[in-house]
Amino acid sequence: SQTIHQWPATLVQPVGSPLSLECTVEGTSNPNLYWYRQAAGRGLQLLFYSVGIGQISSEVPQNLSASRPQDRQFILSSKKLLLSDSGFYLCAWSEGLGELFFGEGSRLTVL
Amino acid sequence: GENVEQHPSTLSVQEGDSAVIKCTYSDSASNYFPWYKQELGKRPQLIIDIRSNVGEKKDQRIAVTLNKTAKHFSLHITETQPEDSAVYFCAARGGGGFKTIFGAGTRLFVKA
């Protein structure tokens, strides 16, 4: 069966520090991969999606970036975090046009 | 691009009553409409979905209706139970097929 792993689960970082969140999917090939952000009490905002290795589509201008170095690995990064980057980050995958499956999330607090 | 609006933002019902959450979408090419439930501190999980060639779908106490002409879709929960308390998100996936855009969420409280 397919599983999705996302880490770290919790992160507290100072303003201006770098960020790296990692997500891996097991049990499937060539998944569509997504990064969403959920601000406190808010909805799920699509940040990036990828339909293949090295293919990244960005949905919102921001100081975050995403990379897909391997078929089932998706990384969210920042060179310098802002206070507004705080939130709950969710990685997700889908197979073709099927259901989205979410990871357990990474809670980022920028101080 | 697609925009999804969801109402109400908060809904409080008595146990056993029905709950209805409504969403509208902007992209007439959207063809897939999932609903997710997120319990406190957990990941969102799919509870029901509907495709644009169907007007209604039911799964036990949960039903979803879709009006393509008006670009409206709704979630209906009957005989609510305290364990139904959670945040519910509607979403729409556009004609391009890869982007699922979510509404802002509805926090449902079911009072025992």
Description:
- The complex is a heterodimer of chains A (111) and B (112).
- By secondary structure, chain A is an all-beta fold.
- Helices cover 0% and strands 59% of the residues of chain A.
- In chain A, β4 and β5 (44-52) form a beta hairpin.
- In chain A, strands 2, 4, 5, 6, 9, 10 and 11 form a 7-stranded mixed β-sheet that branches. A 4-stranded antiparallel β-sheet of chain A has the order 1-3-8-7, with no helix packed on it.
- Chain A contains no helices and 11 strands.
- In chain B, strands 2, 4, 5, 9, 10 and 11 form a 6-stranded mixed β-sheet that branches. In chain B, strands 1-3-8-7-6 form a 5-stranded antiparallel β-sheet, with no helix packed on it.
- In chain B, β7 (62-67) and β8 form a beta hairpin.
- Chain B has 112 residues and is an all-beta fold.
- Chains A and B meet through β4 and β5 of A and β4, β5, β9 and β10 of B.
Q: Helix tally of chain B?
A: 0
Mean pLDDT of chain B: 94
Helix/strand/pairing class of chain A, anyone?
mainly beta
- Largest interface, counted by CB within 8 Å of the partner chain's CB: A-B, 21 and 22 residues
According to DSSP, the number of beta strands of chain B is: 11
- Measured as a percent range, the helix fraction of chain B is under 10%
Q: Largest sheet of chain A, if any?
A: 7 strands, mixed
Low-confidence segments of chain A, ≥5 residues, pLDDT <50? none
